Amino acid sequence: MPSSVNVVVLIGNLTRDPELRATAGGTSVCKLGLAVNERAKDPTTGEWGERPNYFDIDVFGAQGESCAQYLTKGRQVAVEGRLRWRSWETQEGQKRSAVSIVANSVQFIGPRESGGQGGGWSGGGQSAGGQSSGPAFNKGGLDPAKDDFAESGDDDIPF
């Protein structure tokens, strides 16, 4: 059994257009901003609603170049990767830190803005390499197109 596990799977919408840069060694890195909604209950009204969470994603190499070429703000994607914590000191001597996600795979699952048929849960996705990959993250036997996860409400949880 592994001593630790660092795996993140997120599905959300891009908050900005991708930014493609290169490391000092010449490796391409694409920076993505991802918004993922969380279902939450308003403590004052008792109404259920959506609360966004924002994540910074780094995609390296050819996959990052594909993301920069094909993705735009608002596009829905699925990201599988790992958390990375880093710290630094500002020029003023203040210590800063941030957590970001290093993507192992990015699936393009939302429709393209040009009106073409984009992949989705039922129609398959397009990987960052541009190949059709079938339903995103459906290797574990779960089929979100058939299973209604929204039906199981948070009211059933005892905490």
List its traits:
OB fold (Dihydrolipoamide Acetyltransferase, E2P); globular; mainly beta; 1 helix; 159 residues; 8 strands; single chain; 5-stranded mixed beta barrel
Task: Give a written overview of the molecule.
- With 159 residues, the protein is mainly beta.
- It has one domain: Nucleic acid-binding proteins (OB fold (Dihydrolipoamide Acetyltransferase, E2P)).
- Helix content is 6%, strand content 45%.
- Strands 1-3-4-6-5 form a five-stranded mixed barrel.
- A hairpin with a 5-residue loop joins strand 2 and strand 3.
- The longest helix has 10 residues.
- The protein is globular, with a radius of gyration of 18 Å.
- The two termini are 30 Å apart.
Unreliable stretches: 115-127, 129-154
Contiguous helical run count: 1
Calculate Rg over CA atoms. Answer: 18 Å
CATH architecture call: Beta Barrel
Oligomeric state of shown chains:
single chain
DSSP summary, beta strand count: 8
The figure for the number of domains is 1
Kindly summarize this structure in a few lines.
By secondary structure, this protein is mainly β. The protein has one helix spanning 61-70, and strands spanning 8-14, 19-22, 28-41, 48-60, 76-89, 95-108, 125-127, 132-134.
